Amino acid sequence: MADWLESFVAMRVHVLVRFGLWAEIIALELPKDPQLYCVTTAMLHYGKGVAYSATGRIEEAERERELFHAAVARVPDSRTLFNNTCRDILAIAAATLDGELLYRKGDHDKAFEALRHSVELDDSLPYDEPWGWMRPARHALGHLLLEQGRITEAEAVYRADLGLDHALPRACQHPGNVWALHGYHECLLRLGKTDAADIIGQQLKLATALSDVPIRASCFCRLPSTDGPDGHCCH
């Protein structure tokens, strides 16, 4: 049954990364049986690598990246998550981790190349509900482009993710997604597109109405230097 069910154990990593709970991710213990829990082990190394990258601990992030690839090598082709193979899903994790680590090392062009590859891999997954990869890859790409002042590029990323330009098939769109709305709204404001920003701002207000966690960016990987006045880190 592990081929069908074990990958569900790894789902909490997506949640912890989504909300930038870096200390909690780093503190997670690895499974005692890495062969049986091979997908969980790989996802934990991915999450720890992202957490170490986001907190500037580059050497530790690089070590987790090595451990991640070693763990992926133990994942059999037969291990699946609904309609997707776990190896295809972990390929997105690999590209995302590369992008996050390269970004923290200051190699932004290669970082964006890796993150764009993660988007391509995410888009190519067979349709599934829920998604095979739970955190849309465009959210990290859009946010880090925005952080580097590449606002027009970031705007296009968010617009496509929200399905506003019909550039993507419906299965790859995330209409009304609060994270993408936040990124798109910030892009519109910074580009001076105030009329469009007002419209998206209304949608964002509705999307955040019942949120019990402040959402200040599309990705909690925001660098401390770009935090808001309360100093809260925003992935």
CATH fold-level name of the largest domain: Serine Threonine Protein Phosphatase 5, Tetratricopeptide repeat
CA(first)-CA(last) distance: 34 Å
Give the helix proportion (percent range): 55-70%
Overall tally of domains:
2
* Proper CATH architecture of the largest domain: Alpha Horseshoe
Tally of helical runs: 11
Major β-sheet strand ordering: 1-2
Main sheet, how many strands, which sense, barrel? Answer: 2 strands, antiparallel
H/E element string?
HHHHHEEHHHHHH
Radius of gyration: 17 Å
Strand coverage percent: under 5%
Overall shape: globular
Strands, count:
2
Q: What is the mean predicted local confidence, pLDDT?
A: 93
* Poorly predicted residue ranges: 225-235
CATH class of the largest domain: Mainly Alpha
* Class from secondary-structure proportions: mainly alpha
Short description:
The chain is an all-alpha fold. The chain contains 11 helices and 2 strands; from the N terminus they run H-H-H-H-H-E-E-H-H-H-H-H-H. The chain folds into 2 domains: 1-135, Serine Threonine Protein Phosphatase 5, Tetratricopeptide repeat (Alpha Horseshoe), CATH 1.25.40; 136-235, Serine Threonine Protein Phosphatase 5, Tetratricopeptide repeat (Alpha Horseshoe), CATH 1.25.40.
Using brief descriptors, characterize the structure shown.
2 strands, Serine Threonine Protein Phosphatase 5, Tetratricopeptide repeat, 2% strand, 235 residues, two-stranded antiparallel ribbon, mainly alpha
